[in-house]
Write a structure and sequence with these properties.
539 residues, Spore Coat Polysaccharide Biosynthesis Protein SpsA, Chain A, seven-stranded mixed sheet, 17 helices, disordered N terminus, Glyco_trans_2-like, Nucleotide-diphossugar_trans
């Protein structure tokens, strides 16, 4: 994975390195904030170079925040107090807390520049990072050490050749973070850990920063991504740091991965403002909204009447329950529908019971070929605008069909997954089922950045435009339900969960073979992760 270079399309890169910064806005206020910790070897030179670059161009000021340095940094800064605003932490609090300290002294009408004090960032590049803000092309600009100014080169070859500046472990870590952010947020940011950045007026006030270490740069970036603000990366030349990095690769990488994950949950509304209570409140609002629609029965029937429904039911030895399921479908009094039952080699009298039923098309497998293959056969024979899959074991209530269809009809989704977590379940879910769904939820989230809690349920609705997801599926057993979701996400279909009621099986027990299912799921995850990465590389 680490050997693959990220190539950014030519139209996504502004070649600012070769463009002089026009002083179109001499009155712009620029506030340069520099966090320092034991930077005695470099900070004086950095400040002097900033004055040389900025004095004839901008109305600017410099704020340096010392984070409890133990070398000669503090004394040097005190001697330069006439040239800078000087702040200090009484003890070492971390880079994130130090930046937040500096931000409290910034005004909303200022352009904010942050850069490190170790000599790695060149003050001469500040005008290039300010220019997109002045030109109205960005709200936030990141100076990227990895982005070559020649788009076809991908990552900056000059920077990567110098192993003293960036060791291989940090390079691997940055690559993983880059891919992870792309997978979860669909944002291509090559240097998420860059400490050289600019913010447009008022942008800093929009940030909600909760972390204190080196993960702060990632947190800032994802804050702005979640807010939908414009982020631009500009290739920068990099100087040689005068010291070893203060970053702990293992500890800080784990913190960064945590930030990426938790902020994605916040974006999806799962942890709004970081509180479980708010999450429950948000879910309750959604449920209430759907329940209001349920009460509008006549309106729903009117809308459903313009769609043909194909209800696909797989069957394997369900003679004690399947007739009850079909009778409940009849009770819905649907106007335009068909019921397709595919029997997967039943050895009881299921087939005899199903023959000659009204609106039921029966297809029979001579032998058992698996749940997934059975569903695909039924879906391929469907002629409806909306295709509903529902199990024949009596756990699902057909009366929930109009509710799930409504989410597609109102153009909120392409696929709806019936979810007991948005409705209710009337028995104790076995531990293996709950743990398995949680495991799948996390993996799907990491690969696609999507959250589907009831990911193993068989009660689903598909618009006919989505039927291409059933082509070339690899798994025909119980892993089929997970593969459908991954195939849908890979093709960028909108998948949502809708409320259903779930009941315990009235008779019999589950036929899921747990070990076989687990092995198939692992292969499925690896397969779709690889496909996801390939798409990322091609972009």
């Amino acid at each position: 994975m680490t050997s693959q270079e990220i190539v950014v399309p030519k139209d996504k890169i502004k070649n600012f390195m070769d463009q002089p910064c026009e002083d179109k806005k001499m009155n712009s206020k620029v506030h340069i904030i520099i966090p320092v910790f034991n930077e005695a070897k470099s900070i004086v030179e950095i400040i002097n170079r900033i004055h040389v670059v900025m004095k004839s161009r901008y109305n600017y000021k410099i704020t340096v925040i010392d984070d409890g340095s133990s070398d000669n940094t503090l004394k040097l800064l005190e001697e330069m107090e006439s040239k800078i605003n000087f702040l200090r932490n009484d003890k070492n609090l971390g880079k994130g807390e130090t930046l937040k300290h500096g931000f409290t002294h910034a005004n909303k009408n200022e352009i904010i520049v942050i850069l490190d004090g170790d000599g790695e960032h060149r003050p001469e590049d500040i005008p290039k990072l300010i220019k997109p803000l002045l030109d109205g092309e960005a709200d936030h600009v990141i100076g990227s050490r990895f982005l070559s100014k020649q788009p076809k080169q991908g990552r900056n070859p000059d920077y990567l050749r110098n192993k003293k500046k960036f060791n291989k472990l940090r390079y691997i870590g940055n690559s993983i973070i880059t891919w992870m952010i792309y997978l979860l947020y669909q944002e291509k940011i090559t240097d998420t850990q860059s400490g050289f950045r600019t913010f447009g007026p008022g942008v800093i006030s929009k940030l909600t920063l909760k972390f204190s270490g080196f993960e702060t740069e990632t947190e800032m970036t994802l804050n702005l991504v979640n807010l939908g603000l414009r982020i631009v990366e500009i290739p920068i030349k990099s100087g040689l740091s005068t010291r070893e990095s203060h970053m702990n690769i293992i500890r800080d990488s784990l913190r960064i991965f945590f930030v990426i994950s938790i902020m994605k949950f916040q974006k999806e509304g799962v942890l709004k403002n970081g509180t479980k209570e708010n999450s429950i409140f948000q879910r309750q609002l959604l449920e209430n909204k759907i329940l209001e629609k349920i009460n509008q029965i006549e309106t729903q029937k009117l809308k459903l009447s313009s769609y043909k429904l194909s209800i696909v039911i797989p069957c394997l030895n369900e003679s004690s329950t399947i007739i009850g399921v079909i009778r409940e479908i009849y009770a819905l009094n649907l106007n335009n529908y068909e019921i397709i039952v595919v029997d997967d080699g039943s050895t009881d009298n299921s087939v005899d019971l199903l023959r000659n039923l009204k609106n039921v098309k029966l297809f029979i497998h001579s032998k058992n070929i698996g749940y997934g293959r059975t569903l695909i056969d039924g879906i391929q024979k469907a002629s409806g605008d909306l295709i509903i899959t529902i199990d024949s074991d009596g756990q699902h209530e057909p009366k929930d069909i109009p509710i799930l269809c409504q989410l597609i009809i109102e153009n909120n989704a392409d696929i709806v997954v019936g979810s007991r977590y948005k409705g209710r379940y009337n028995y104790q879910i076995p531990f293996f089922n709950r743990a398995g769904e949680a495991f799948i939820e996390v993996i799907v989230f990491l690969i696609f950045g999507k959250i589907i809690k009831n990911n193993q349920g068989g009660f689903r609705v598909f618009h006919k435009r989505t039927l291409d997801i059933f082509k070339n599926l690899k798994f025909h057993g119980m892993a089929f339900t997970t593969e459908i979701l991954m195939s849908a996400f890979l093709k960028n279909y909108r998948v949502v969960e809708g409320p259903i009621n779930l009941y315990n099986r009235p008779i019999g027990k589950s036929r899921v073979k747990k070990i076989k299912l687990l092995l198939n799921l692992i292969i499925c995850f690896l397969t779709y992760s690889f496909q996801r990465i390939l798409r990322f590389i091609k972009k």
